[in-house]
Amino acid sequence: MRSLTRRGRVTLALGGLTYLAAWAFGATALYPVSIGLVAACLLGATAVRLSSGEARVRRELGAEEHIEGDDVTVRAELDVASTLQAAPVRLLEQVGRLGLREVALRRKGGRLKSSYTLRAVPRGRYSFQGGRALVEDPFGLARSELPLRPAGALVVLPRLAEVDRLFSEAGSGPPGGGRLLLRRPSGFDLHSVREYEYGESLRKVHWPSTARRGALMVRELEDDPRDDVAVLLDAHGGGAIRSFPSSTFDVQVRVAGSILRSHLRRGRRALLVVSSAQILSVSAHSSEGDWRAALALLAAAEPTGTRPAATLIADEGGPLGRAQELAVVTAAVSRQLVDRLTARVLERRSVSLVLVDPASLATPSRSTRDPGLLRLAAAGVPV
User: Fold this and answer.
1) CATH class for the domain made up of 167-179+226-379
2) What global pTM score does this model have?
3) What is the pLDDT of residue 223?
């Protein structure tokens, strides 16, 4: 879109009025002034028109990965398919929730380049959208807006903590008393039976099949591919306290990521589930690709969920159904959640809970003993 600016329209009108005044009063000295004002507008509009064309922007974000709290330098390079490159160009773009950025582009080696720095960027995925290049003559008389296609995004990963030993590894206390070390759910499942071969241990004999067939039958065992542990990040919209750029949900993301990384470093299969508006999950083991996918999911996670955590845990056919060990990271403990976690303990399935206390981010605050936490502690759930 090319047009004269408000200053340009005023200048053009002033030039016309000056010419009329010179003609009406015979003031010949005003003719050069009027012609100069009109010519400046025409030359500015011509320079902008010749400097405009289809524009494309390329960005470099510096480091391979960015961690929340870091400064991020964005380097932009603009290509404009124009006949003439005479007018100054500025770049305007919306960087997600970080706001609108405007920078002047300078010509270096025949290209338009510039950079700007985003300070202490919070965790998130920020799309570059609504970008446009402004071509304007030096006097601000004419301007052209060149739309830019949305392209790319800045992904800022959560800042995770180094966890040597998880609090849940001390073991959970079953309702009957004593301590029960958390069991690893991976192992061997009965796959099939075959006839006994001489010399094999009788411990492998599958006695129900032996009684049925009247001959010794041996168990064939197969490694169970199920996940060792599932980490549920409760992204229910009603639980997050305070808004962008810092909230209880950001703390939840850091905790969930730290727990997940601790399990992966020990070679365990882990499942990350985020209960946002669309239930998202990533199964990770030891490969770098799996871990990168989990990090990307944590970076983009938002507290937009509508399903309570208790509903997801109760769904045996859902992503959490096969996990024997479950770690829940939440900012709110409901009675339904306490009931579901207690039921899993009674099923001899390991459970742990991390509660991000909203009072820790509010002032003034006063901690209280939540009855739900007391019930979980009595049931033997590490909290």
Assistant:
1) alpha beta
2) 0.73
3) 46
